[in-house]
Amino acid sequence: RKEVEQDPGPFNVPEGATVAFNCTYSNSASQSFFWYRQDCRKEPKLLMSVYSSGNEDGRFTAQLNRASQYISLLIRDSKLSDSATYLCVVNLPRLNTGFQKLVFGTGTRLLVSP
Amino acid sequence: NAGVMQNPRHLVRRRGQEARLRCSPMKGHSHVYWYRQLPEEGLKFMVYLQKENIIDESGMPKERFSAEFPKEGPSILRIQQVVRGDSAAYFCASSDMFGGDETQYFGPGTRLLVL
Hints:
Largest sheet of chain A: 6 strands, mixed
Structural class of chain A: mainly beta
Mean pLDDT of chain A: 91
Order of helices and strands of chain A: EEEEEEEEEEE
Oligomer: heterodimer
Largest interface: A-B, 20 and 24 residues
Strand content of chain B: over 45%
Order of helices and strands of chain B: EEEEEEEEEEE
Helix content of chain A: under 10%
Largest sheet of chain B: 7 strands, mixed
Distance between the termini of chain A: 37 Å
Number of helices of chain B: 0
Structural class of chain B: mainly beta
Radius of gyration of chain B: 13 Å
Shape of chain B: globular
């Protein structure tokens, strides 16, 4: 089983639509969760951290379900500029160093059309 | 405040040559991470370094790959005797863990093509 699994998509949606991405992770010791955005041939950029209580940043809402080891990202009122690949990222504590390794999903591709 | 800088942005090598990838972390950051992204795959952690120390290299291939982060200058990822399978995008990230901020900021990447 992959450490972080995402539906690769692509999700094709019209402008203004609401779209949701899901992600599951396998290691219950994970403590921090993130969504990154990666544009074609660019570097990943942090979109938002994900907290147990859920958090919202403008049109973006992230949720975490620790019991099900499941993370979601909801995008409301999609814009053309939201077209990108969305990476689910989970940290994996390494006991011998204390370093928290980030494990990336392969990403979900979103295409927003006019 | 300059972000993470990587150079070169594109690197072409023939099989058997050496590739050197450089990364300058954000100002004030002392933690550097290297990742590799193969086509159509996710980013894979390779190595985590602090100044003059390799903290975790669990994702680094055992042969041909090495990394350093000297007291002065950028971090270097070195690939000796490159093979076609080394063709990928190599991203560097940096963080500042003082104050508890472990957010990793990524550089623009180096795209390595091995002919």
